[in-house]
Amino acid sequence: MKKFLMLWIIALLAANAFTQINFTGKVFDYQTNEVLSGAHVTLQPAFLTQVTNDEGVFRFDGLKKGSYLLKITFLGYDNYLQAVDLKEDTIFKIMMMRRPVMEEELVISASRVPENSPATFTNLEKDDIRKSNLGQDIPFLLETTPGLVASSDAGAGIGYTSLKIRGTDITRINVTVNGVQWNDPESQGVYWVNLPDLASSIQSIQVQRGVGTSSNGAAAFGGSINIQTQSLRAEPYAEINSAAGSFNTFKNTISAGTGLIDGKFTFDGCFSKITSDGYIDRATSGLSSFYLSGGYFTDKTVLKFNLISGSEKTYQAWNGVPYDSLATNRTFNPSGLYYRDDGTVAYYENETDNYDQNHYQLIFSQTLSRKTSINITAFMVNGFGYYENYKENQKFSAYGLEYEIIGNDTISRTDLVRRKYLDNGFYGANFSVNYQHSGTLRGIVGGGYNYYDGDHYGEVTWAEYAINMPINYQWYFNNGIKKQYNLFGKVYYDLKKHYHFFAEAQLRGINYRINGIHDDLRDISMKDDFLFFNPKLGATAAINQNHQSHISFGVANREPTRNDFRDADQDNQPRPERLLDIELGHTYTINNFRVNANFYFMDYKDQLVMTGKINNVGNAIFENVPDSYRAGIEISFGWSPITKLRWEANLALSQNKIKNMKEYVDNWSPPYEQITTDLGTTDISFSPPVTGSSVLNYNLLNGLDVAWIAKYVGKQYIDNTSSESRMLDPYFVNDLRFNYTITTGFIREIDFNLLINNIFSAKYSSNAWIYRYFEDGRVYRMDGFFPQAVINVLGGVALKF
Questions:
Q1: Which class for 93: exposed (0-12), middle (13-18), buried (19 or more C-beta within 10 A)?
Q2: For a tag on the chain, would you pick the N or C end, based on fewer CB atoms within 10 A?
Q3: Contacts of 352 (CB under 8 A, 6+ apart)
Q4: Beta bridge partners of 418
């Protein structure tokens, strides 16, 4: 019996060996019959990719018999799609058509890396985003990206959301929209809620991990997220998209476009409205947005204007749920809580955040020759908003006011309502010059300049005792001016198809000043200048069609944020941070299977972290720590054992350490000095040592896809002390997604989407904050946790005309 089984296995292996097929193709320009080297070739559902060599040739060896989809892309040409049925060795001649009009690839080429680049990145296309776009914000649409952790203040992915990559928060991640910086210049953060449902107008996203490309905008200090909005659609279209689900969530989006008018002009628009009560008590969101675009296209020119606008009103949930409430009431929201005169609890109904933001972009791309092109983008961002709080028992002196005297009584405190405003403008221009030589050499030179002007001020709009208080009394005002410029150069060089080299360098200068007083009546005026040099080198070796390795080395520098300067003592200003990043990876691909392993080591100098230290008026500050690092391995794989089944998963294992950590804890009892403890080496907060995700997709019926999505996040420390008592527990969350598409005579396409989140109702928190102090010899804490929703449902239908 054993011999029979052995002979059977040998026979199968031999049969498989003899049925292996070689597929070769040569790519030409249809008009000139010239070969196209450097075209990107993919073969689906296999995980095979190649780039055509100097003779325009690609070759896939060892394929199984079957049906495949051949896709070839090349800048300036229409995408080539061809179904091929491989039964024997096959040779194809492919003729690619130049686009009659130029498209917008040049807009993002300076801030993205190509497929064979020695970088660690993930690409998402419009179809990937569409499947899950039912109202949740971009961090949740990116949640299966390796090493990425998303969180939501309201618990359901709508309203204020956040993300971290490799434990790095958004203030250290460069985010661009069409190559324009989205990070707020002062805080360096990105507030996704300011442009709600931007996902409905996105063409593609590239997420880079590590240092990332050094182009325009804020420091790519721990990663980059590059977003491209809607690209040219040559045919007229219209779409109505509606979704509804748990927590009274509703999303309605209308989009339409003219297609090309007279072969040159196009207009597109998208209007969206999202409302939700949120999982957390009173964590309501009222969000609206629109996207308008008009373009002029010829075979050598693109001139395009984009207006992206968002408006949000959210009830504040950023205080989180106190730890001692999680077990009994994990949706409790203390924001706006106050006590009536009779001692009963009430909630201020307008404890809200309100903000409007408009992005204007004027994009010009011009082909100067077949080898050279330029891109110039001018932009303007205007934002205005405030958040409002009901505050009890406030001292008049804290607002620069004298005591109120009523009769014989001297009133020193009052209940009041206050607003904190931000009125800001951000203006600038970016440029790049692209040079492509025979598919083997590509160079980009570019740069930009931008100017930020932000007013921060606060007003008291009501007070219980306000005889001597002016109407809408302004108790503080300060202004921030930030000027930034940068120059960069990039070179990609391919050597005999198998070796790809990359080098880039960026010079980035910053001039920043603040004038005025803060809400605690301190003068926070300051000014500082920075000049950073950020180089990066890398190489990729395509050993054969199955094995590819890459290595890269990059340097990034980052200036402190507004908060870092604002909260520091005048005689102890924060220093800039520096990161050295080494990435080493290998990819193995064989027909329907691909696995990639990427090792990284990120070494920080003077990283700014929370240590518990406070300034001379008691405000917590971020402090530079001399030495810290992140080191890890990211493993991702894809497997398609049969045509209808596709499984993609990733696992990230890491160590994230601060060397020689000192902890400072306030003492609220005499002598009121902070207690200092040397902790040695500790873990960096919010940096789970293990994360992983999995997407198992099965085509159940023609047009019906079912996906099981799983996400695991290991334990995370809330502060930098590695204390098990201040930790977020690991969590494992599973979702189910159903997508069904049908075509009809009148309606071009109808999409039905259903997303069941957290199907096993895991109870977990994805983010938190904590403050500890001593009083009378005992340790006390104030904290806030952000629980995420138990099982919830979102469903939608899209009608495409």
A1: exposed
A2: N
A3: 313, 314, 315, 316, 387, 388
A4: 389, 460
User: 623 pairs with which residues across the strands?
Assistant: 609
For the chain, the residue count is: 801
CA distance 483 to 327: 48
- Three-class SS state of 174: strand
How many CB atoms are located within 10 Å of the residue 101 CB? 19
User: Scanning the structure block, which residue is given the tokens 């932000």?
Assistant: 454
- Which two three-digit tokens encode residue 424? 């800001």
Q: What is the mean pLDDT of residues 140-147?
A: 95
What are the DSSP calls for 130-154, one per residue? HTT-SS--HHHHTTTSTTEEEEESS
How many Cβ atoms from other residues are within 10 Å of residue 167's Cβ? 24
Taking only the tens place, the pLDDT of each residue in 404-414 is 888 888 899 99
SS3 per-residue string spanning 317-350: CCCCECHHHCCCCCCCCCCCEEECCCCCEEECCC
Q: Which two tokens stand for residue 341?
A: 């005169």
86 vs 68: CA distance, rounded Å: 8
SS3 helix, strand, coil % of the chain, rounded to 5?
A: 5, 60, 30
Examine the pLDDT at 12 and tell me if it is beyond 50: no
CATH of domain 229-800: 2.40.170.20
Place of tokens 């209308």: 254
> Are 797 and 752 contacting, i.e. CB atoms less than 8 angstroms apart?
yes
- Compute CA distances 380 → 363, 410, 421, 485, 770, whole Å: 12, 50, 20, 16, 37
CA separation for the pair 234, 268 (Å, rounded)? 11
Domain boundaries, the chain: 20-98, 229-800
Q: Which of 675, 657, 651, 625 is nearest to 775 (CA)?
A: 675
Separation of first and last alpha carbons in the chain: 62
* Strand 352-367 versus strand 792-800 pairing type: unpaired
Distance CA 237, CA 306 (A): 18
Determine the Cα–Cα distance for residues 333 and 324; give it in Å rounded to an integer. 13
Which parts of 108-248 are beta strand (E)?
Answer: 120-125, 148-152, 161-165, 168-169, 173-177, 180-181, 202-209, 223-229, 237-245
Q: What is the 3-state secondary structure (H, E, C) of 757-782?
A: ECCCCCCCEEEEEEEEEEECCEEEEE
* Residue 332: how many other CB atoms lie within 10 Å: 16
The CATH label, of 3.90.1150.10, 2.10.109.10, 2.60.40.1120, 2.40.30.10, for the domain at 20-98 is 2.60.40.1120
Contact 16, 591 (CB under 8 A): no
Around Cβ 81, how many Cβ atoms within 10 Å? 11
144-169 per-position pLDDT tens digit: 999 999 999 999 999 999 999 999 99
Phi, psi of 127 (to 5 degrees): -65, -35
Element (H, E) at 13: helix 2-18
**C-alpha angle 359-361-366 in degrees, rounded to nearest 5:** 165
Model confidence pLDDT, tens digit, residues 245-281: 999 999 999 999 999 999 899 999 999 999 999 999 9
- 3-state SS of 402-449? CCEEECCEEECEEEEEEEEEEEEEEEEEEEEEEEEECCCEEEEEEEEE
Band (37; pLDDT cuts 50, 70, 90): confident
- Looking at residue 371, its pLDDT comes to 86
Alpha carbon distance 415, 393 (integer Å) = 5
Each residue of 315-340: pLDDT tens digit? 999 999 999 999 999 999 999 999 99
pLDDT in tens, 120-139: 899 998 988 999 999 999 99
**Distance separating alpha carbons of residues 146 and 143, to the nearest angstrom:** 8
pLDDT of residue 11: 40
Tell me the residue type at 668: W
Is the CB of residue 51 less than 8 Å from the CB of residue 38? yes
Phi, psi of 9 (to 5 degrees): -65, -45
